[in-house]
Every structure is written in structure tokens, then in C-alpha cells.
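As agreed, record passed on underneath.
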Amino acid sequence: MAFFVANHLTMMMKILQPVSFLLLAFFLTLPAIAQEADSTSAWETTLVGKLSAAQAGFHNWAEGGINTVSGTISTEGKAARTEGRWSQTYDGRLAFGLVQQDTLDARKADDRIRLGAALEYAGDGFFSIFHPTLAATARTQFAPGFNYDKNPFANDESGDERKPPVRVSQFMAPATFTQSVGLTYEPVPWFMQRFGLSAKETVVTVEKFRPLYGLDPDQTVRPEIGLELWSELEKEIVENVLLKSKLGLFAAFNTPDSPDLIWENLIAMQVNDFLSVNFEFVSLYDKDISKEVQLKEVLSVGVSISLL
């Protein structure tokens, strides 16, 4: 167990180091930037790091079982400031995890880069309820991903007959970026909904992977214009149990009958000052990638540390 954690944490840190250091530096410098711009307005910042691990071992166990070791490192941060009628919000989530079963090589269990930013204006009259908003998001991953069940390239024109595992993704392949302009409605502090005109870009920098994500082989970016509906809920449902839910719907003008959907849910249970239990459920639908809904769930127990 100790060997796995030491060995794979080193690998995780090598992958996470560039982006996590940049994000950390970003959050650490925000208050200084804010004070330079306006000494009466301060940034509200949070940055939490988490390390979780799990292990199961069997020896001469009559009922059978698989030796398993896993570890995940993650960080989540947010910075917000209100100055006059203007509000700025920046948030980010980074995570990377590995799992190893018996004699198999270590496999990626979790991998995400999620960044978001929003600029909101609170005006008078109508705009005191519905706030004009500019927003942007970015989503990709750190490390290569593999399909261990089948070779998705087996039936294409390349004649690829490799047996699994087959690499199907990596950093910026794919990556999804959105930019939107619209109105934000926030009836209570724990719920927000935004609606407006949006642009979405699906980027795949590796030519081989592009058909898997609905792009032509010579197409690095698939741009789309449409309407976006974005909802966020963050509420403590019982003491020390926090529910975070984000639902994004994007309907491109050329395919309004099959909107893209991403629904991210996180239940965070804080046992004490350091120990936490998280359950995450993600649902994703994009007809250009798959005609079926993609599902992911992660249950983790670990140590969390407030960095800011």
C-alpha cells in the first residue's frame, strides 16, 4: 500500500503540477489584484485539496476476491468579488486518480480539468432580477485515456486491428469550451439559473481521435452556435452534508431537437475537520459523440485540507 501511494502520487504530481501550480498562483494573487484595483472591495476565495486512497487485499481467501489499490488527488477552488453593480466569479476543479488490480498495470480512474468564469451586472428594474451575464467554461483532462473493452477504430477506413487497450483521448483531445451572453436569475442564494446565446467549441488536437468525437479527420475544432440553459444548486441538505448540482443544456441552431446535456452532482459529507466522504454522479449526452447517455460515478473517502 505504502509503495503504491508513494509511487503513484509521484506520477500524479508530475501530471498535475503545471496546471495546479498555475491555478494556486491565480487564487493566491487575486486578493492582491483586487486591492490594487479597489481597496474597498475584497475577493472571497476558497481552495481545498483532497487526497483519497482505498485498498483491498486477499490471501488464501476461500470466497475469492481481487487485490485492489487506488488513489486520487484533487483540488477545488473558487474566487468571487462584488464591486458596485458588477460581480465576478471564477471556479475550478482538478482531479487525477489511478487504480491497480492484481497484476494489471495501473489504470486511470479519474481525470478532470474544469474551469469557469462569469461576469454579472445587477442593474435597475428588470435587470435587478435578471442580471446580464458573460460566462465561459473549459473542460478537458490531464492524461491519455484508454478503451479496455474494444477497439473503436476497428471498423474505420484505417484498417486498425489493434486489440484493447486502445488510446482514445489525451490532454486537449477532446476539450470543450463554451462562451455565453445572457441573463442570470438568482431567486435564493443557493440556486442560480442562466439562459442566453452561446458558442461551443469541441477541440480534438489528435487527428486519429477526431472521428470518435464527431469531427472530420482534418477538422481540429467543431464550432457550434445555439442557446444555453445553465443551472447551479449548492445547498447544505443536512448538517455537514452539502449537495452541489450543475445542469447544462446546449441546443445548437442546426440540431435543436437533440440538445447536448451535462449534469454533474456531488454530495460532500464532512465527517470532521479533515476526513470527508464524496459521492459524484455525472451524466453526459452529446449526439455527435454517442447516441446513448454516458454515465460516471465516483465514491471516495479521503483527507481534505483547506488551502485558502
Q: What stands out?
A: DSSP finds one helix and 14 strands in the chain. Confidence is low (pLDDT under 50) at residues 1-24, 26-40. Helices lie at 2-37. Residues 2-306 form a domain with the Outer membrane phospholipase (ompla); Chain C fold (CATH 2.40.230).
